[in-house]
Write a structure and sequence with these properties.
Mean pLDDT: 88
Oligomer: single chain
CATH topology: Lysozyme-like
Radius of gyration: 27 Å
CATH architecture: 3-Layer(aba) Sandwich
Helix content: 40-55%
Strand content: 5-15%
CATH class: Alpha Beta
Strand order of the largest sheet: 1-4-3-5-2-6
Distance between the termini: 113 Å
Number of helices: 6
Low-confidence stretches: 1-28
Structural class: alpha/beta
Number of domains: 1
Largest sheet: 6 strands, mixed
Length: 269
């Protein structure tokens, strides 16, 4: 009887541990699944770059040229897109634009922090041109020298999911216009900061799993790629339309030539 009770207790413990493990795994994977369900699937129809640009609700509010984060002109040809989160519960995109425009955020190689875009649930604000280097990732490393920096807002009242979706659309648009491949969408985590005890920052923290890119980050990058594919499909649509128009033009020219030839044969030319 004691043996049976002991065996039952062991089986019960094993079952509880297994269920606990399953729940832990599913909760980690469930986050991006819930996001996908709430946002809905990205449409598979072509979308023009103009339509996507209008959907972003982009506002340009550049740091004054020659001041603060732009006090040094450092030309950049972007090869990457770096995704950040502000970790600021009180500042919206407009507050960050104001701070950058008066040089309130110090740091980086040039003495002032700056990045290219700040995104919240209903708008995108641009702070510096994408042809200029920012100070947002890794001091004098490739993250700053070659990447467009995007900060996602986290202030109270901001819809975090819509902010992620607007960021995914912005990243897709930047990929399209700058010919940046999907594998070059990077989390701030990707760029180590020399001299820090934790060089790889847990950023954007709500898209990382235990401080590192995992399922949630892969979901986000996949979402970016699906928006980008709509732009690529639009290009293919335009190319197909152009091909069909050229073929129709050739057919009209051929018909005209044949009719002209027949007219000459029967003496009507």
């Amino acid at each position: 009887m004691k043996i049976a009770n002991s065996l039952f207790a062991s089986l019960a413990t094993a079952l509880l541990l297994a269920l606990s493990g399953c729940n832990s795994t599913s909760s980690t994977a469930k986050k991006s699944s819930i996001w996908e369900k709430e946002l809905g699937a990205v449409a598979q129809t072509p979308e023009s770059p103009t339509e996507l640009h209008e959907d972003l609700n982009l506002k340009v509010n550049l740091i004054p040229k020659g001041k603060y984060g732009r006090r040094l002109f450092r030309e950049m040809t972007p090869q990457y897109i770096t995704i950040h989160s502000t970790q600021n519960p009180t500042g919206d995109a407009y507050a960050h634009a104001k701070a950058l425009n008066r040089g309130a955020l110090r740091g980086g190689v040039c003495g002032y922090l700056c990045w290219h875009f700040t995104v919240q649930d209903d708008t995108v604000i641009q702070h510096i041109p994408t042809s200029e280097r920012g100070e947002h990732a890794d001091f004098d490393g490739p993250g700053n020298r070659y990447s467009i920096g995007i900060e996602m807002c986290e202030h109270q009242g901001n819809n975090q999911l819509q902010t992620m979706e607007r960021t995914a659309k912005l990243a897709a648009s930047l990929m399209y216009h700058h010919k940046i491949p999907i594998e070059n969408i990077r989390a701030h985590y990707h760029w180590p900061r020399e001299g820090y005890s934790t060089p790889n920052k847990n950023c954007p923290h709500f898209l990382l799993d235990n401080g590192q890119p995992g399922d949630d980050w892969r979901w986000f990058v996949g979402r970016v790629n699906r928006h980008y594919q709509r732009l690529a499909a639009y290009d293919e649509y335009l190319q197909e339309q152009k091909r069909q128009e050229e073929e129709a033009k050739k057919r009209r020219q051929m018909v005209h030539m044949i009719l002209h030839q027949i007219g000459e044969w029967v003496g009507l030319g």
